Amino acid sequence: MNTKSILFVILSLWSVATVSAQNTLPRVKNLYADSLTVALDAVSQKSLIPGFVVATANEHKITYIKGFGLADKRRNIAFTPLTVNWIASISKTFVALSVMKLVEQKKLDLDEPINSILPYTITNPYFPDKPITIRHLVTHTSSIIDDDLVAFNSGQADQYLEDDNKKYDSLPAYFQPNVQYYRMGKKISLDEFVKYYTVKGQKWYNDSTTFSKKEPGTFFQYSNLGANIVARIVEVKSGMSFRDFTKKYIFKPLKMANTAWSHKEIKPTLLTKWYIPDDDKAPKGVLEAPRYSVAGFANGGLYTNISDLSRYLIEMIKGSNGKGTLLSKQAYTILFQAQRPSSNELHEKDQIGIFWFVSSTGVLSHLGGSDGVYSFLYFNPATKSGAIGFSNMRNDDFGHVHSAVKKYEPHINKQMK
Q: In the chain, what are the domains?
């Protein structure tokens, strides 16, 4: 073989090796991401859930983001990272951040009795001498409970349809009570919502359905109403509407351009449809569900997409490690600090921070579920990584999505550092 031939062979082998390395390294790097995609594709194909989206992130960037299925079945529109839906009770973490902003500004004290702030009195009739504090509300230990049937039994509702349609009359019989309930409601202010439920003599107040017989501060009982009271306190102390407060101190700083407390503020082309099973016992398909609004919006009514929510997740991861930009290091420490109620409904080893749930291993999380959505958000301050996801239908199959993400997320984030 002459010199030119030998040189050609060497260069050819080097070229092949280089291309091979370039093609192989990304595949190795994304092996777990590919495995997650395969697992989620399988869920999407087998499940009734029309569409969902997930993302993983570390303190620096999004490490995985992908939508599956459809946001609109009738129009065959894909569910993408830009698709907007409400995220249900994950919204409460935004209430938590707002409270801590006021604490940081020295406008609020967590141990301040709420009756020293609100222009009306909220008192547990079973413990009239025990003040309810902000800390009680944000740790779900206020003794204030939820009972939507109180409004329903009075011929009213705290949820309402902004765009009613006769086609809702043809939805399955099992869902018709929901449609009836939505049609009974009307738009009211957050202040009216809080007063109607909590002030004695108001239209939705009842001793036994507004308050438990547990002393405030001693027993954990999840309360959507409590979160709305906190949002109202933010309004009183800041002099701003809760919508404007969160826009100024959270959405704009994080550049969450497609996030709002009403679907009316979102581009219609970005919104996913909501879906319900076509039968409550043996479903074979899904039907489009009514999009309703809630008077007590702060506990679960935030609309966003996974791209925006990933920015929020990254900020929470940074904040848990003293690098956040929305709050001071001290304020973030209080936000995520675990507090154990003396008697609770939590798992034996789980604790509660400021609306955040804290696992025995230190993972911070919140779940959400309502008509048209299941959602999750979690992160581990120790590994500086986490994940989020949400769907456009409340269905137990979303648990498989959550499980798959929890399985692969640590590996994805470890490789993408």
A: 30-415 (3.40.710.10)
Contact assessment for residue 226 and residue 145, using Cβ atoms and an 8 Å cutoff: no
Yes or no: say if 376 and 409 are a contact pair by the CB < 8 Å rule: no
Helix %, strand %, coil % for the chain, to 5?
45, 20, 40
Q: Residue 56: pLDDT above 60? A: yes
Taking every pair of Cα atoms in the chain, the longest distance, rounded to a whole number of angstroms, is 103
Q: Residue 417's pLDDT band (boundaries 50, 70, 90)?
A: confident
Token output for 280: 């409550």
pLDDT confidence tier of residue 350, bands split at 50, 70 and 90: confident
Say which residue the tokens 């001071």 belong to.
328
Where do the DSSP E strands lie in 191-312? 274-277, 286-289, 292-294, 303-305
Residue type (1 letter), 63: T
This prediction's pTM: 0.91
Let me know: does 93 contact 366? Beta carbons within 8 Å.
yes
Q: According to DSSP H, which parts of 92-175 are helical?
A: 92-104, 134-138, 149-153
Please check the confidence at residue 220 and state whether its pLDDT lies above 50: yes
> Do residues 109 and 134 lie in contact, with contact meaning Cβ atoms separated by under 8 Å?
yes
Q: Copy the structure tokens of residue 314.
A: 């990254």
How big is the CA angle at 321 (ends 319 and 324), to the nearest 5 degrees?
30
**Tokens, residue 254:** 């994080």
The yes-or-no verdict on residue 6 having pLDDT over 70 is no
pLDDT at position 347: 58
Between 3 and 334, whose confidence is greater?
Answer: 334
Whether 90 and 308 have beta carbons less than 8 Å apart is answered as: no
Which of 300, 301, 298, 337 is closest to 319 using CA atoms?
Answer: 337
Q: Residues 142, 136: contact at Cβ < 8 Å?
A: yes
